[in-house]
Design a protein that fits this description.
- The protein is globular.
- The chain is built from no helices and 8 strands.
- The protein has a 6-stranded antiparallel beta barrel.
- The termini are far apart.
- By secondary structure, the chain is mostly beta strands.
- It has one domain (23-117): Roll (Pnp Oxidase, Chain A), CATH 2.30.110.10.
């Protein structure tokens, strides 16, 4: 018996490896890192999503893979107190967009963020 060329292939279900729930949230973020020579750098961008243990950021300033970064996310709405999420994280993935865009995505992972009140601004 001949096998049809359009036979259905079974897909292996993907395994969710994340340990924390991610929330879609687009807000400004600032991050800092040092290179191997001790040079200090700052980047900024917009979050795509965030969890208690990481954040995905779109930015023009991509730190190298495995870099250790300090990330700060300011949480604010008009008429409310501002909060600051701060964490020490590591670049666990870098995804480059189309060359002309100059934008890349970085996945930052760490143990947790700390929350504090932010200075008015």
């Amino acid at each position: 018996m001949a096998h049809p060329s359009n036979a259905i292939q079974l897909e292996t279900p993907s395994v969710e490896r994340r340990r924390a729930i991610r929330y879609e949230l687009q807000i400004p973020v600032v991050f800092y890192w040092e290179n191997a020579g001790g040079g200090k750098f700052q980047g900024e961008g917009m979050t795509r999503d965030i969890s208690e243990a990481g954040v995905y950021v779109f930015t023009e300033n991509c730190p190298p893979l495995m870099s250790k970064v300090v990330v700060e996310v300011v949480l604010a709405q008009p008429g409310t107190a501002r909060g600051l999420l701060k964490g020490r994280m590591q670049v666990v993935r870098v995804e480059h967009g189309p060359e002309a865009s100059g934008i890349c995505g970085i996945a930052l992972g760490g143990k947790t963020f700390s929350l504090s009140s932010a200075a008015p601004g």
